[in-house]
Fold this sequence. Notes:
This protein has 229 residues and is mainly alpha-helical.
Amino acid sequence: xxxxxxxxxxxxxxxxxxxxxxxxxxxxxxxxxxxxxxxxxxxxxxxxxxxxxxxxxxxxxxxxxxxxxxxxxxxxxxxxxxxxxxxxxxxxxxxxxxxxxxxxxxxxxxxxxxxxxxxxxxxxxxxxxxxxxxxxxxxxxxxxxxxxxxxxxxxxxxxxxxxxxxxxxxxxxxxxxxxxxxxxxxxxxxxxxxxxxxxxxxxxxxxxxxxxxxxxxxxxxxxxxxxxx
Length: 229
């Protein structure tokens, strides 16, 4: 199926903003940026926009994919590589955004046929309601065992630099699948069908490898700035 250049360009924007945010985070790790500067309201909003973009676009792509199970397993493997790499660098990442995206793709592989039989508006409305409901639920609850954190139930002392549990974020992924279905139904739309320069679409089409590789590079650059500073 022909790709939607506008969606690849959106993913490229998210990748670029993510790299910029992670660079600032690395500067913060090395003491070159203060907590007040990094965790300011504008940057917090930017961070949520980036992550929500990735989740919605992954959901949309799940509607286009012919093998969500394979893609999901690849993304889960990449997420594991990121978590191991973070541990080597002295950081803690448990169930980051790649683990969410991979597990959501796997779940959609098994649930997609059923969900596609439902009206899109019902899936979107139900997904939105369950997003807020499960977000409230997991924020109120505290797990007594450690293995429930992928679902959103944190245990005492839990910490993670990047944490996107299935509850509530899987429901945002489902909203993305509805958006993907809309794109398929309106593929002749002028905006969706418009070709864009490769400079805008290429990074978005290779976002996974960029995601895995960009942080070691930025971490190294930040380290050099710290050493020379």
